[in-house]
Every structure is written in structure tokens, then in C-alpha cells.
Amino acid sequence: MTNFSLERFPFDPNEIRAWGAADLRHRNWPVVYVMNNDTEVYVGESLNSESRMRQHLDSDEKRRLSWVRVVLNETFNKSACLDLESYLIRMFSGDGQYQVLNQNAGITDADYYDREVYRKSFEEVFEKLRTQEHLFQRTLPEIINSDLFKLSPFKALNHDQAIAVEDILDGLFADLESDTPSTVVVQGNPGTGKTVVAIYLLKLLEDIRRHDPEEPLDSDSIFSEYFTPARAELLATLRVGLVVPQQSLRASISRVFKLTPGLHEKLVLTPFSVGASDEPFDLLIVDEAHRLNQRANQPSGPLNKKFEEINRKLFGKDDPKFTQLDWVRKQSRHTILMLDTGQSVRPADLPVATTNALLEEASTSGRLYPLQSQMRISAEQDYVGYVRKVLSDTPPLTREDFEGYDLRFFSDLGKMRHEILLRDQEKGLSRLLAGYAWKWSSKTDKNAIDIELDGVKLRWNSSQRDWINSPGSELEVGSIHTVQGYDLNYAGVIIGEDLRYDNAAGEITFNRSEYHDKKGRENNPKLGIKYSDQDLLEYVRNIYTVLLTRGIFGTYIYVCNEELRDYLRQYF
């Protein structure tokens, strides 16, 4: 497919007519086209591109566009064009130079004959649009490593995700018609794409709501059947929002929504803003729902007071049993919860009994959707499940090797840091991460060293918002609170002395004196709970599972405790 041509002309009726008459393929051949003005872009594919251009001239939204570029090739077929169209939409969304006007009717990640051959040439199309037409401001690696790309609503869903979205839409529209409240749970391990589904769903609903029935949709789009006037009417007055408990991830998603037509940053909510709202919601989608808080000591005095005020406002009393999940369900008629019980990392998170009850409720009602396909880790075997087993009380009987995945065990931190810096130069987005086994002295003293091992001096993350992409982050160490929900290309994980191995007992143990997350170990006097070392061990295991499953292409591991190092070496 390398012999493609790129044709450019003004988006004007006379120019379109002249272009259409110049070549039979302009009226009867599969092509992909890009239309833009100074701030907006639209990507499409068609078998009759001249006719499609004239249809676009009838659209108020498209009429604002100024230029058309058409990608032509003798070997194009419908499947290849759909794939290239999806690819370019994702790249424009990840680049951030233009607002992408496409709707989210969606195509799955469908296979077709010679797909790999076609896919290799997509990068050539991208590069020509970037260097010759100046339609992209960033290179391909820069886009792929960006949050705008990773958190984009324009994704080709895998089979699990597509089924979940389709079933959720069917249920939601049925519930809206019958005015029946509902709770849906999407369950999945790290890397299965829960956040992708949450963002995709919200964009899809907004597009259905705003769809112009005169604007034709591609019948091959898997969600095109939902773009009807009746469904748009059901959504017309719907008040929706995406609740994101973690500050860092919330800031990144807000930035994506700000650049996406149909979405805006005000749709991204904190649990507190949901609870305090005087106007109820019709639908709330909650990402990382396991990170919603129960009644516990909050990061600040004002938030403790606010927790109490919201309870009184919503329930007439400040009963400590009420959680932020109760706020969400009280304030919204329909809720969709993205959940992984294995990613609770602090005692303030929803208790296991609550999340298990949610899973049971959703399973009984037929509204539980498991995501099983691993989207992050480039290993064919179940790497995430393997890590969880290794850190559990029932470890694997034999060691597994993950072909194609760069999994390494280091006994010298300097060497591991050197390798991570090399991977960052080669692939980008490679960072050091660690458990909370060191005090955060540099938070108040910028000259202080937080971590010193093997002659290597390191500081914790200097930024709490979007740390992974902040300048200088490759020289720092990220904690669980800056990386949960994010992807890295390579992760170098330091397992501190908060985890140890007891040779006599033959088990992994928790060392409270070496665990320095104050909110991660404090008791809960409001609920009369004192957390034992065994309780906290479960949270710390979850923390290291999350850290060890951030890397797409590889994970490097350094263990401080000698006994634990010897124990884990047999598995890595």
C-alpha cells in the first residue's frame, strides 16, 4: 500500500465538482479523507467521495471546514479504509492541535486480509499529513505516549469492551423508557480498559444526544443503530457526569474533555462535587469506583466538615455508615461503576464488604460486565494474575516466562535506573516507581533526598497532578497516588522494606515502621476500626500489584529486603 497519493482541494462546491469529474475513482472507489479549518478536523471514508463531500456541504458543522485531503490507493478496500479512518481519528485526538468533529459511532478492532501490511503504511500516511500538510504538530511517538491519546474517547474497542458498551446501552435505554433506576458494574483487572469504556460511553451518549438525523452515519459502525431521534429524545435533558476520585487522573481526563466536541471539563466531577450538588443527576459514570471513600479522616479539615455536611444534606443525619458511593447512588438515578476490588490501596477506600456486595447485586440483576482482555501488558499470558499470585499467600507452583515482555530483576538500583533512563530515551514514558516506604521530605524541603540506595539519591514526585508527563519526572520516583490509572511503556519498581519475607513462617509480611503513607495506615475512629498489620498488608500488596502492572512493554524490579529479594527472585 505504499504507493498512495494525497490529493488536496478547497472545500467548495465548484472545486468538489471539478475534482469528482477528474477521475472515476473519485466517485467509485474506497478512499479516506481529512477535512479541516484552522481549529477543527473531520476524518471520513467513502466509496463515493464526491457525493459524500456534497452531503457534508449541507451540514452546518461541516460547512465551516476549508480544505479536503483525500488518501487514494489502488489496493484500498472498505476494511482498510475503516481501519485507516479510525487510526487517523485517534491520532488527531491525541495530537490536540484540532478539535475532532467525528462522532463516536465506533468500530471494533476488526481483523481483515493483509491487515499488517496496510497498518505499516498508515504511519507513512500520518507522516505525509504531518510534514507535507502540517496537520499534526507532534510526532507519532509523542502522540502515542500522551494522555490525550491514551484517554481519548476515539478508541477501537476490543470484543469485551464492545459487548459491555452495547449491553449497557440496551439496558440504559430500556430503563429510561420505563423510568426504572439502575446500577451497572464493569469489572476488570488493571489494564483491561475500564477507563476507556467510561470515557467512550460518555462521548457516545453525548453524540447520540446531539446527532443531526440528516447527517448520514456509516452502517458499518457498530453503534450506528443507536443514533435515532427517539433515543436522542430520551437523552435530551439527561444530566450526566464522570466521577473520578483520584486528583491526578481527574486533571488528565479534564484536559481531554476540554479538547473534545460534545464534552467539557465540567462533566468531570469529584465525589464531593456530586454530594454537594443541589441538582440531582440522571446518570453518573464512576471510574475507579473502588477508590471512593468511606467515612474516614480526609486529607484536610474542611473536607472532613464537608463530608459531614453532605451526609446531613442527603440523608438528614451524619451517620458514619454513609460512604461516597451512597452519595453517588442518592444523587443519580442511574450509575455505571468501573470496579476492581484488587486496586483498593488505602483504608479510606470503600471496604471490601461494600464492593463485594456491589458485585453480587450487579450479578443478580444481570448488570455485571467483566473485562478480561489485557489491553496494557504486551504479554500473551496473564501477567497481572501472575503478579497477584506471586504476592499472595498462595504463590504459583512454577515460574512463568513472559515471552515478548521485558521482565527483569535487579540487585543494583543504579543499574535499574540506568536502564529505565535508556528506555525513556528509546521509547519515552519510562519511570521509576516505589512503594510508600520512604518519607516525603522533599515535599517541604526541595533540596532534601527522599530515597538513598546503592549510592543512588532520588526524590519523590515533585508534582501530584499529571506527574508522569511533567518535566523532569524521569529523574524522580512516582508513588501509587501519581500512577494509578495510567500507562507507562516501562516501569522500574522499587519494593521497599514495607514488605518483607519471613523465612520461618514462609510468608510475605508487612513492616508498619517502614510504611510512611500516613493516610494509608491510620485507624478509623469514626467507625471504631483499628487496622492490624494483616489488614494493611492487603493494601500494600494491592499497591505493589498496581505498580508492577503499569508497564506496557516491560517491568524492572528492585527489592530492598534481602529475604524478600531471594524469595521473589525465583518468580522473576
TrEMBL record:
> Could you tell me which residue ranges the GIY-YIG domain spans?
28-100
Which InterPro entries does this entry report, sorted A to Z? AAA+_ATPase, GIY-YIG_endonuc, P-loop_NTPase, SLFN_3-like_DNA/RNA_helicase
Task: Identify this protein by name.
Answer: DUF2075 domain-containing protein
Q: What Gene3D superfamilies does this protein map onto?
A: P-loop containing nucleotide triphosphate hydrolases
Source organism, top-level taxon: Bacteria
